[in-house]
Amino acid sequence: MAGSPLISLCMIVRDEEERLGRCLESARPFVDEIVVVDTGSTDGTVALAERHGARVVHEPWTDDFSAARNRSLEEARGRWILVLDADEILSEEAGRHLRRIAAEEKVLAAVFTMRCAESDGGDTRSLMVRAFRRREDIRFRYRIHEQVLPDIVRVLKDEGLEQRLCPGEIFHDGYLEEVVESRGKNERNLRIYELQLQETPDDAFMLYKYADFLRRIEGREEARRDALERAFAVVEALDSEERLSLSFCGQICALLAEALQREGDLERAFEVSTLGVSTCQTTADLYYVHGNTALLLGDSTTAEEAFEECRACADRPGPIACAPEIMGLGAAMGLARARFLQGWTDEAVQDAVAILEEHPRSEEALNLVVDLHRSAGLYSDLMGRLGEVVLRDPSWAAVWFRGAELLAGLRLYQKALPWIMRASELGLPTTETKALEGECFLGIGMAEKAMDAFEEGLPDPRCHAGLIVLQLLCRSEPTEPLDPSDSDLFQACRTLLGRITSDENHPFREGLTSARSWIRALNSRNRPFLEEAMA
Question: Does residue 182 carry a pLDDT above 70?
Answer without folding.
Answer: no
